[in-house]
Amino acid sequence: MKNFDVFIIGSGMAGMTIANKCASKGLTVAITDELPYGGTCALRGCDPKKVLIGATEVVDFATRLKGKGIDTVPTINWSSLMAYKQTFVDDVPANIEKGYKESGITTYHSRAKFISANQLVIDNETVEAGKIVIASGAKTRKLQIPGEEYTINSTDFLNLKELPKSLIFVGGGYIAFEFAHIAARSGAKVTIVHRGKSPLEKFDQDIVRHLVTATQELGIEIHLETEVTEIQKENEQYAVTANKNGGPIKVIAQTVINSAGRTPAIFDLELDVANIKYGKKGIIVNEYLQSVSNPNVYAAGDCADTKGFPLTPVAVMEGHIVSSNIIKGNNRQPDYNAIPTVVFTLPSIASVGITEKEAQEQNLNTKVNLNSVPNWFNSRRLNAKEYAYKTIIENSSGKILGAHLIGPYAEETINLFAMAIKAGLKTNDIKSMILTYPTLASDITYMV
Fold this sequence. Notes:
448 residues, FAD/NAD(P)-binding domain, Enolase-like, domain 1, seven-stranded mixed sheet, 14 helices, 24 strands, globular
């Protein structure tokens, strides 16, 4: 049996941060991952997705300016684009493992299972650690319907050698919308089927409505309040049967993507054996990201039940906090305020701080600015039909409490609002700033 000071399950951004930081302080560290080292973001999520979006941005920009100085809209060469994407992915696992070995970190490549409060078995080898960190991330949620085996997931989509002529996305979250926009601008016929009344439920719905309009204008068909009941193979295609408004509908496409959300990748770790409490949202932790039932265990990233969004920067932040609490004893707590989040569609939608609904639930005395501004200069010069904002401001202090945007480069503008909320800036502070013009950032003075 091998002994370590720290053993980490999962080599995504949270696990990698913890491993490197603990090893740098002289602790003996080991890490395992049944998937290639690098985690979802670098290999199967944010980074490769953004490479694909980069190509669709060119198509989107040219489409908006066609007839306004642009004569020809380019087309996407899917195989060439995927080959380019691969250049960002191929070397990641080997480079990460090389870094681990240079730091003296012991590496494993198998799923771990608990056999006691501080012991794991990996490939029939038992390891023991003073602290065990669960940073195993999340995986695609099961649909639990007949024919589910015919679906692919987001990882599969990012590795399609050829783009199908037609696709159906089951689920209406950010994965569905982002990938639907990529596929549609690459020439595919796309349908989104979502069981809820509104897609992207965690985002401000006034802003989401603008995105739905932009998505439909792109030619993407959206079925809301539609519960998928079965998927059947029909020749070389698949038929998705669903219940919509009490009646059955059928949608047919070459490929069906399960985009119905993600669930913590923890349920095969034998957590009960180690007295680790958990729920549907992940490992239940205290304010120090330590298991509430097993003090030997910490959790970080998408597998931890915290107030943080399932975002890469949140996983990194939690990784630093867990590292500090292991090295120095429990001394740091995460701060989940002013964390921006984005849906990387075109146009993108972005959010930070509280929503209008949350302000009402907390009985806050606020002013809400909601406006659609397709006639602003920045919108007109880019020929952007959807450009809107909602800002939530505390009446008594003038502090900015929340911002929700849709429009060109909203993913960048939202960072300014995040800094303003984090710093406690007031509307007068923003209005008195001199910003470069005519940039999208300069519009924030009018949004507050």
